């Protein structure tokens, strides 16, 4: 980082990272190395080892030992909470550094990365409280001769596979709660964006987390990721990524040890706008919902379902808003829309934009890749004259591409919103509470927003219906997801003998 100037620049040399096992970094040594270039600048910024099968096995064995000897699971909740709170403090102190490396590898605007790290601090603080309040139940109504207890126990060794779109945020929506529950972890970040996961390992260690509780292997999904899915010593696998790989996760669990699964997968999320909405607010929200993180967001509001009487006007309002969003160097404080994270994703998005036109939709705005001299960027793009059967209206694009579909009745809006194999998130914009609540009840989505979008806090559970996944992350729902329930039935007094 250039400390001498207030304008951030990429590093002059890529930063070398090792992977992290048993409380220490392991340098790449003779292993192959992956060099990551900043998508916003096209220059190499990090170098990471490609872990081998033996490295993955060693990391799992280490997490297994750390779980089985109870160094973390048997620690008093007050001690676990203290470490989670210290982690929050260190994160706050190192927020700028984390945001910088997140921006370099991912391409998101630095201002957004800073806000995300701020949110992550809150997650560790909440998890510290939850570590102390998570509890079971008791049944004192089983007669004088018995007492029933229901206790919660950690699941064990958790494999954690995370994607490249929110490398640090998605990590911190899971790690504090997994640790609060007393589990140990082997994390496998996307090879594109591993730096901040490794930085978290360092921070947790500094905060006092015992060695072996949090381990990080680097390398590609197809190699170390797949081996983690299949590992017999991993008790639970938390996967965030595409629905296609999610299927592979389910299959691998079925083939091996039936490991418990948490899956957060794709989405094609509706934003339903009624004519009685505050259209100015709704236009800003819809623009934010599709352009935030360049639409590389599982919960991005990519299908605008708008009441026909205002559809043309509202489409122009959204396009007008998007035209004013500032696209630029992710390290520039003023940038709102950064770079597309991977070359493959850039090709996918441009492919869908071309396909939309070929299918007969009309490009209302955007559609081009601006040349900023370096890096890869795509303008927010809006299509009208879209029909529900078009690929751009059905498939997850994972980019800043909005399709507009008009509706006439409330029932039709709900049917259109539910006409998808996904069920991750949805928004409704209306000043009529009856309509808003009716839609919130009838649309199948794990997250629902009324007169806002992409909002919430660490207390709110996240996760999807249908092909968008299984289970819930964050808050108390997240802690409970990573715990087993045990029923303990206790006899009091002399047994009434079966064999007399
Ligand atoms: P992806 O290809 O499924 O990759 C996600 C993670 O899985 C990465 O760490 C990847 O590693 C790893 N991976 C890939 N193939 C694997 C395999 N065979 N076995 C084990 N791990 C494997 O998805 P992506 O392209 O990174 O992310 C985009 C998708 O994720 C979108 O569909 C999006 O909706 C979804 N997503 C969902 C959420 C949510 O919370 N619901 C959040 C973010 C993203 P490498 O990258 O190193 O290969």
Shape: globular
Largest sheet, spatial ordering of strands = 15-16-17-14-13-19-20
Average pLDDT, rounded to a whole number, is 97
Summed up, the helix count is 16
How many domains, as an integer? 2
**Bound compounds:** NADP nicotinamide-adenine-dinucleotide phosphate
The percent range for strand residues is: 15-25%
Helix proportion range = 25-40%
State the end-to-end CA separation.
Answer: 80 Å
Structural class: alpha/beta
CATH superfamily of the largest domain: Aldehyde Dehydrogenase, Chain A, domain 1
Rg of Cα set = 24 Å
Question: Which consecutive residue ranges, at least 5 long each, have pLDDT under 50?
Answer: 1-5
CATH topology-level name of the largest domain: Aldehyde Dehydrogenase, Chain A, domain 1
Task: Profile the largest sheet.
Answer: 7 strands, mixed
In total, the number of strands is 23
CATH architecture of the largest domain: 3-Layer(aba) Sandwich
Which CATH first-tier class of the largest domain would you pick? Alpha Beta
What does this structure look like?
With 500 residues, the chain is of the alpha/beta class. The protein has helices spanning 53-68, 77-93, 95-106, 110-133, 167-172, 175-180, 195-207, 221-230, 243-255, 279-291, 308-324, 343-358, 391-394, 410-418, 433-442, 475-481, and strands at residues 15-16, 19-21, 24-26, 33-37, 44-49, 137-139, 146-154, 157-161, 184-188, 214-216, 236-240, 260-264, 270-273, 303-307, 362-365, 381-384, 401-407, 422-423, 425-429, 447-450, 465-466, 469-470, 483-491. It has two domains: 15-265 and 468-486, Aldehyde Dehydrogenase, Chain A, domain 1 (3-Layer(aba) Sandwich), CATH 3.40.605.10; 270-450, Aldehyde Dehydrogenase, Chain A, domain 2 (3-Layer(aba) Sandwich). The strands form six sheets. A seven-stranded mixed β-sheet has the order 15-16-17-14-13-19-20, with helices on both faces. A six-stranded mixed β-sheet has the order 10-9-8-11-12-22, with helices on both faces. It has a three-stranded mixed β-sheet with strand order 1-5-4, with no helix packed on it. α1 (53-68) runs parallel beside α8 (221-230), α3 (95-106) packs across α4 and α10 crosses α11 (308-324). Residues 1-5 have low confidence and may be disordered. The structure holds NADP nicotinamide-adenine-dinucleotide phosphate. Residues 161-165, 170, 188, 190-192, 220-222, 225-226, 229, 240-242, 245, 248, 264-267, 298, 396, 398, 424 line the site of NADP nicotinamide-adenine-dinucleotide phosphate (NAP).
């Amino acid at each position: 980082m250039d400390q001498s100037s207030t304008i951030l620049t990429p590093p002059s040399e890529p930063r070398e990272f090792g992977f992290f096992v048993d409380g220490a970094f392991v340098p790449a040594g003779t292993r192959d190395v992956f060099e990551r270039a900043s998508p916003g600048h096209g220059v190499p910024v990090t170098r990471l080892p490609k872990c081998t099968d033996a490295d993955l096995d060693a990391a799992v064995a280490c997490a297994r030992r750390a779980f089985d000897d109870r160094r973390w699971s048997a620690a008093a909740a007050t001690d676990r909470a203290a470490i989670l709170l210290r982690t929050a403090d260190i994160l706050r102190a190192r927020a700028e550094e984390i945001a910088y490396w997140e921006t370099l590898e991912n391409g998101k605007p630095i201002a957004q990365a800073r806000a995300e790290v701020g949110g992550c601090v809150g997650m560790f603080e909440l998890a510290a409280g939850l570590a102390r309040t998570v509890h079971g139940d008791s049944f004192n109504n089983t007669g004088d001769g018995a007492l029933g207890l229901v206790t919660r126990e950690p699941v064990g060794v958790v494999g954690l596979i995370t994607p490249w779109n929110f490398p640090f945020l998605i990590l911190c929506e899971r790690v504090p709660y997994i640790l609060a529950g007393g589990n140990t972890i082997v994390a496998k970040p996307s090879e594109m964006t591993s730096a901040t996961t490794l930085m978290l390992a360092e921070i947790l260690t500094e905060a006092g987390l015992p060695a072996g509780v949090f381990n990080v292997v680097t390398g590609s999904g197809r190699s170390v990721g797949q081996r983690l899915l299949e590992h017999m010593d991993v008790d639970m696998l938390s996967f965030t990524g595409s629905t296609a790989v999610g299927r592979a996760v389910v299959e691998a669990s079925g083939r091996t040890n039936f490991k418990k699964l948490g899956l957060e997968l794709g989405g094609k999320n509706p934003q339903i706008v009624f004519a009685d909405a505050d259209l100015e607010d709704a236009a800003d929200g819809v623009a934010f919902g599709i352009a935030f993180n360049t639409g590389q967001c599982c919960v991005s509001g990519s299908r605008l379902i708008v009441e026909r009487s205002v559809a043309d006007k509202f489409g122009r309002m959204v396009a007008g808003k998007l035209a004013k969003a500032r696209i630029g160097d992710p390290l520039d404080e003023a940038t709102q829309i950064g770079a597309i994270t991977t070359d493959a994703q850039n090709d996918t998005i441009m492919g869908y934009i071309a396909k939309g036109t070929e299918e007969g939709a009309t490009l209302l705005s955007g559609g081009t890749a601006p040349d900023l001299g370096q890096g890869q960027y795509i303008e927010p793009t809006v299509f009208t004259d879209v029909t529900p059967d078009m690929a751009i209206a059905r498939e997850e694009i994972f980019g800043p591409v909005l399709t507009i579909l008009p509706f006439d009745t409330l029932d039709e809006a709900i049917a259109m919103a539910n006409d998808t194999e996904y069920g991750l998130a949805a928004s409704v914009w209306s000043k009529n509470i009856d309509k808003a609540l009716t839609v919130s009840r009838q649309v199948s989505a794990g997250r629902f927003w009324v007169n806002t979008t992409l909002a919430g806090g660490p207390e709110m559970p996240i996760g999807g219906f249908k092909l968008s996944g299984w289970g819930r992350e964050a808050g108390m729902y997240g802690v409970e997801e990573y715990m087993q329930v045990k029923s303990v039935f206790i006899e009091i007094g002399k047994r009434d003998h079966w064999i007399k």
